[in-house]
Amino acid sequence: HVQLVESGGGSVQAGGSLRLSCVRTGFTMNTYCMGWFRQVPGKEREAVAGISPGGSITYYADSVKGRFTISRDNGKKTVWLQMNALEATDTAVYYCAARVGYCYNALTTAYYVYWGQGTQVTVS
Q1: Is 111 exposed, middle or buried (0-12, 13-18, 19+ CB in 10 A)?
Q2: Which residues neighbour 20 within 8 Å (Cβ) at sequence distance 6 or greater?
Q3: What are φ and ψ of residue 89, in 5° steps?
Q4: How far is the CA of 24 from the CAs of 30, 51, 58, in angstroms?
Q5: pLDDT by residue (tens digit) across 44-89?
Q6: Can you tell me the distance from the alpha carbon of 25 to that of 87, in angstroms, rounded to the nearest whole number?
Q7: Which of 49, 52, 59, 85 is 20 to 30 A from 111, alpha carbon to alpha carbon?
């Protein structure tokens, strides 16, 4: 049973930091493009960051460059999103996503096949 489980969301004041985690279970392959997306009610899901299977290449939406960092540990089957200097506009449900293979479209929602259930981030 393929599953992505996010954690680490919560409420924080503007300027603060949070670290989101995503653990994948049930995956049989070893090469996955991983990404983080976010969504607010009434709006489309948007890309935040992506990371290549080996972790050497990262991708960021312009809105988070310089503030967010994506990383992964394949041995732990975990990807993280470190979020610093949070702003009220970062408030959203954050989703982890995965796709077998390399990151040809790491910041495209439709590229990903597997999705987590989401974790709420609220910045006030």
Answers
A1: middle
A2: 6, 7, 8, 9, 36, 80, 81, 83, 94, 96, 119, 121
A3: -70, -10
A4: 11, 15, 19
A5: 999 999 999 999 999 999 999 999 999 999 999 999 999 999 999 9
A6: 32
A7: 85
Q: Which pLDDT belongs to residue 21?
A: 98
Give percent above pLDDT 70 in the chain: 100
Average pLDDT score over the chain: 95
Q: How many whole angstroms separate alpha carbon 57 and alpha carbon 33?
A: 10
Dihedral angle sign, alpha carbons of residues 53, 8, 90, 17: negative
| 109 burial type by CB count under 10 A (0-12 exposed, 13-18 middle, 19+ buried) | middle
Q: At 12, list the tokens.
A: 């924080």
